[in-house]
Amino acid sequence: MSDGARRILANTAYRLLADVGSKLASVLFFVVMARELGDEQFGVFAFGLAFVTLASTLGNFGQDQILTREVARDHGLLDRYFANTLAIKLVFAGISLALTIGIAAAAGLDPETRDVTILLGLAVVLELLMSTCFASYQAFERLEYIPVALISQRFLTAAVGIAALLGGAGVVAAAGIYLAGAAVGFVLALWLLFGRVAKPRLAVDPERWWPLMRAALPIGLAGVFAVVLFRIDTVMLAAYESKDVVGDYSAAYRLFEATLFVSWSIGAAVYPVFSRLSPSSEPSVGFVYERSLKLVTALTLPLAAGAAVLPGPVVDTLYGEQYDEAAPALRLLAPAIALYPLSYLGGYLLVSQNRQRVLTLVYGVVALENVLLNLVLIPTLSLEGAALGTSISQLLVAVAFVAVSQQTVGRIAWRRVLAGPVAATVLATVAMVLLRGNFWAALSAATLVYVAALVAIELTLYSEDARAVLDLVPLRRRTSTA
Predict the structure, then answer these.
(1) Which of 334, 341, 303, 321 is nearest to 432 (CA)?
(2) Both 363 and 454 in a single domain?
């Protein structure tokens, strides 16, 4: 296996480690919060987080993607981009958060929800600054430091938060602990950047802001529309339904979000590589894109099948019987679990090839479609309507991005990408259906069947791809070089 392929797989593994560890901690924190606070108070936290994420979108306006793309091509540009990106985020996120929270408070937001929203808003700003450090690691292909910062932040938040919740703390205290964890994470991310990766100058030059924002504008607009696409359903559901319904939907949606780390991990590893390659380079960007699609599909398709076949046992095991209403919503979110990776990798590919305007158009149209669809589905189907709207919207984005990506890089060998994951998922689904009366037996059997079938199919049909992954295992590499 080439050094480039090994580096991509290693960086994917580092990002997977970061996201698996952080998601595990976050899911545990949210599960305990849901159980201890009840669906109404959990709904307050979920609403506050969705609200501030929407309100702070101007602070995450595509600057990180531009930093990674340009610095990956020329490491010396980090001095130009790092401090200015932090400054832009602080200014725009701070102003937009202050205005929106102020307007919401004047419109009658109750004091508890207001306090939660303010604390979570400050936390989101710190996480935006932290992501700029991660973008710098990504540009230097030093993703091994992301798990150190991210897992430390999330486990600290989860440990302190769970202890406080079990001790009787309320939703405002939980939001304050979330803010403290974000502050620790940002400081640690900065320390790792300056101590282990690079030492960018901290000179802020406002004259560079407009050129940077102009370059990031298409990505930023796409990001705004994407945040609307991901968060507006919760906000709209809160306008139509009670807090406990919002809590039920948030429980299901959190499980969908818990699968996104796979796409983020692979995207983080391949984006700087995409940025250096072209359709005519050796290897071509299409070759790397195709293998990336295969890897992300293999890791997410069985998760989607599990959400479709076993939503009730998953929800009951994690949240308890009081969240039974979340199970149908999780089943309807299952297609989105499989479709999101196609959208995410396609978006990274298009940005790397300077075709970011496509992102703006597609996300803008689909965000509008999602809002209009939710106006029909939520009053009719409640939280199930919100879930169905999410999956329909993800389908539209995935189809559009894959089509344009294929135009950009050339023909994709879809049989090579899908044959193993699809066949193995079908067999695993059969195992889950046959054993669905016993959740743990169904889960164990499906996992064994999927892994065995996928390895057998890939080694038989596409042995080169299988060996590329197996070569990442240290023991195998030592044995092969002995």
Answers:
(1) 303
(2) no
Tokens 């150190």, located at residue: 148
- Can you give the pLDDT at residue 117? 92
pLDDT of residue 53: 82
Q: Which amino acid, 169?
A: A
State residue 22's pLDDT score.
Answer: 82
Say whether both 260 and 160 belong to one domain: yes
For the chain, the distance separating the N- and C-terminal CA atoms, rounded to the nearest angstrom, is 16
Within-domain flag for 275: yes
> 427 with 322, same domain?
no
Which of 210, 185, 314, 213 is closest to 259 using CA atoms?
A: 314
Residue 232 lies in a domain: yes
Q: Are residues 112 and 261 in the same domain?
A: yes
CA neighbor of 179 nearest in space, from 159, 157, 151, 158: 157
Distance set, CA 421 to CA 19, 177, 335, 409, 471 (Å): 22, 40, 15, 23, 20
Contact 373, 295 (CB under 8 A): no
Which tens digit of pLDDT belongs to each residue from 259-282? 988 888 788 788 888 888 888 888
Parts of the chain with a pLDDT under 50: 1, 471-482
pLDDT at 283: 81
pTM score of the predicted model = 0.72
Is residue 482 a part of any domain in this protein? no
Same domain for 115 and 167? Answer: yes
Domain boundary among 391, 412, 433: 412
Distance CA 115, CA 44 (A): 10
Residues 356 and 233 in one domain: yes
- Is 431 found in the same domain as 358? no
d(CA 479, CA 482): 5
The residue segments making up the domain with residue 209 are 3-412
In contact, 253 and 315? CB cutoff 8 Å: no
Those residues with Cβ within 8 angstroms of residue 473's Cβ, 6 or more apart along the chain or in another chain: none
Asked if residues 87 and 202 have their Cβ atoms less than 8 Å apart, the reply is no
Kindly report, residue by residue over 441-456, the tens digit of the pLDDT: 999 999 999 999 999 9
Structure tokens at 50: 């969705």
Task: Give the pLDDT score at 50.
Answer: 83
Count CB atoms within 10 A of the CB of residue 436.
Answer: 15
Structural contact between residues 315 and 323, judged by C-beta atoms closer than 8 angstroms: yes
pLDDT of residue 5: 59
Check whether residue 283 and residue 257 sit in a common domain.
yes
**Domains held by the chain: number:** 2
Q: What is the pLDDT of residue 7?
A: 67
Could you give the count of Cα atoms lying within 13 Å of 326 in the half-sphere of its Cβ? 27
Cβ atoms of 449 and 429 within 8 Å: the answer is no
Report how far residue 244's alpha carbon sits from residue 264's, in angstroms, rounded to the nearest whole number: 30
pLDDT score of 9: 63
pLDDT score of 467: 64
